[in-house]
Amino acid sequence: MAMSDRDDMSGLEVFFDAARAHAAEPSVALMARIEADAQAVAAQTSAPPRPRRASLSSQLYRLLGGWPAVTGLATAAMAGVWLGISLPEGMLDGANESAYLIDVAPELAFDLAGGNF
Amino acid sequence: MPFDAMAEMSDETLLVLFANGDGAAARALNLRLTPRVMGHAYRLLGNHAEAEDVTQEAMLRLWKIAPEWRQDEAKVTTWLYRVVANLCIDLRRRARGVALESIPEPEDGRATAAEILQDAARAEALQEALDQLPDRQRQAVVLRHIEGLANPEIAEIMEITTEAVESLTARGKRALTAALSGRQEELGYGDER
């Protein structure tokens, strides 16, 4: 730097002092506008969030009775699927066919076999 | 919280209180910060109406950022000086692009200097000289010699090194000295050297 800070300031300091003493001041109207802005922003940020509309699945969930009912339904559904896909071997193994076949009209069967219409 | 109790609180604490819904904290911050913001904006712009617009916008941004403010992050004033400078630079760039011819010539103070206080005339003369400086030089000189900030804080505001701050202020002051040297007698500048 060609000049020292002291040299630079020898004449400028009186101007800087004058500038500090004659600072531009905000008008009353500006202060009021800024205050109003603050209130508007505060009202925006502190407003409670609007309740969101529940989705269809959550409405159905509540309609069914919440988690206890849904758990029961899910268990029953899984049991049904399991019974449907597994072969009923235990029920048939070694059983006599006549034990579970019921002839509701034996006379009709006889008539058919005899060919007597 | 009572308004009087806020006098001792830092700007950062008041901003957090405002974010938590304390209206008195907003009033305290408005009274404390708006005059500083306005003074700084005017020194950077040299236009009262524009300085008011910039001040309102800077304060609005402060209210909006309050919920995200982290107390350990930065000083509120450092943040505000940076926002004000950016807004002023944007405004001056836009004005320069629109109509240079429409900017009025600085008034010749020689005819009126005797009628007004010498101190006010000096402030006005300095403002005219500041208006002629490049944006960054003006900002550095104002922050250092009128706002009275230390170079490290100015470096933080301007996002440059302290060496760059020193260089900007030195060049700015040389330009101011040259601009004001022709008005020594008129402004009583020579009497106090």
UniProtKB/TrEMBL annotation, chain A:
Q: Please, which domain of life does this record's source organism belong to?
A: Bacteria
Q: Supply the alphabetized keyword list.
A: Membrane, Transmembrane, Transmembrane helix
Give the residue spans that cross the bilayer.
60-85
Instruction: Name it.
Output: Dihydroorotate dehydrogenase
From TrEMBL, chain B:
Keywords for this protein:
DNA-binding, Sigma factor, Transcription, Transcription regulation
Q: RNA polymerase sigma factor 70 region 4 type domain: which residues? A: 124-176
GO MF annotation, one: sigma factor activity
Q: Which GO terms describe its biological process?
A: DNA-templated transcription initiation
Q: Where is the RNA polymerase sigma-70 region domain?
A: 33-96
What SUPFAM superfamilies does UniProt report for this protein, alphabetically? Sigma2 domain of RNA polymerase sigma factors, Sigma3 and sigma4 domains of RNA polymerase sigma factors
Family assignment? Belongs to the sigma-70 factor family. ECF subfamily.
Give the protein's recorded name: RNA polymerase, sigma subunit, ECF family
Q: Write down the species.
A: Roseovarius lutimaris
